[in-house]
Give the backbone structure.
Amino acid sequence: MNIITHAFIGWSAGVRISTRAGDIALITAASLLPDIDAFGAVIDIINGGEAVYFSSFHHKFGHCLPFCLLLLPVVYWLSRRNLRLTAWFAGVFHLHLLCDIIGARGPDGYQWPVYYLWPFSETGLTWSGQWHINAWPNILITCLLLVDFLRQAAQIGFTPLRLVSREADSVLVSTLQKRFGGRNEP
Ligand SMILES: [Zn+2]
């Protein structure tokens, strides 16, 4: 699935797992970090446009169990030794892999296998029923998650916009609370 859908999935899970902004950010990161291996595309663009690094590494070092296991001690430390949150991080990380297997077929029909045991195995996981990355199920899921995001923002009283501007975030949240209601509504 695309990065926007993954971000919404992570945030939606995060706000249900914890009310702390730092915890929600960690769970959102769990849903985004596998796609770190798509950054080969940036190098490819700099090198002139041929998708060499992207094709070689996408769905490999970010979308594998060893990368998840490397992250878990860091997450455990960042979450103040919260084993429950660390377990949720691993779960949401794997949800990203599952979402890619079921709904990330490329425009050219390529399935982009998930190399779960990379670098120890070059066996890629695929599913014959996989739909395209821009197919209607992904669009529907993303729209539903967007509505959920707006409703949850009204409830918890903040959005990721807070990282950029607290004032702008307050304006956005109060607008959403007028529309959806929320615990901070007077
Ligand atoms: Zn992915």
